[in-house]
Fold this sequence. Notes:
Belongs to the Glu/Leu/Phe/Val dehydrogenases family. By secondary structure, the chain is α/β, with parallel strands linked by helices.
Amino acid sequence: MTDVRHTAATDGDVLHTLFRSDQGGHEQVVLCQDRESGLKAVIAIHSTALGPALGGTRFHAYADEADPEAAAVRDALNLSRGMSYKNALAGLDHGGGKAVIIGDPEQIKSEELLLAYGRFVASLGGRYVTACDVGTYVHDMDVIARENKWTTGRSPENGGAGDSSVLTSFGVFQGMRAAAQHLWGSPSLAGRRVGVAGVGKVGHYLVDHLIEDGAEVIITDVRQESINRVQQAHPKVAVALDTDALIREPLDIYAPCALGGALNDETVPALTAKVVCGAANNQLDHPGVEKDLADRGILYAPDYVVNAGGVIQVADELHGFDFDRAKAKATKIFDTTLEIFTRAEADGIPPAVAADRIAEQRMADARR
């Protein structure tokens, strides 16, 4: 059984990454281009062993990359693989897929482009179900759904569940509670100091849960308006200058809730927190980071386990959305996370390895 790390990609050989047997290999990758609308997109399907691939659509510019298209493919491959594991651990009958639309959404996003993208998703005949991700929102899914019935994360007015960030944050909160139970003997976060890096779509809801549970919260974000929104709701929340300053604050828990690669060779040695549990995807910058965390006695809650509340929400929408039913399923993230910590401790392995093995077993059983 292989141990797959969900990391930020650095390998420039895209085809090698696509067919790597130690990562399960990808079933299908579709390159999409519509010249009239300016659409350039990648749709990656990692696995359909458990059912149709389900994962969001990221809209991102990759402005700092020498080859934006190759960077987008690598991102889609990493993210789709992570979705296979996330969906398996969430108990969903879905495989893993992800899409990336290349470009600055504030500059090129248009109705024409989204409709063109929807037609490409529709051409896959249900092998891939799309939803929101970084740079895409509920109203975007409403537009995409006009060309493609395999779209979720839509608005309630259009038969959808609305903002999936609601249950994503709830699931991360359950993961934090499980970490507290495992490490300190109680699931309560009252009196714990939690640093949240990124208080946008998911992070600001997470702050709500933490404050309600009695935690002391300190935040940072690159967008001042996001910070202002949190402080208006919770005036006692403190603000760090940036992520580098935040991780050096005395913390019990660090929650990376922005883009991936947050845990790397520079940040891990500087961490003061005893727990890392956040909403960001692909938090481990490279495979050795989880061992570095373990060596420092830092308990890492695998991101693809604790941030599964959103995909649970959008998957429920496909069957006629019921918020209470979806929330009840997201509550089980507490039990899953605790099971992973217990297995990791018993087997003497990092939590991410334990999580991978549980997910791989479910996918292997389904293939058989």
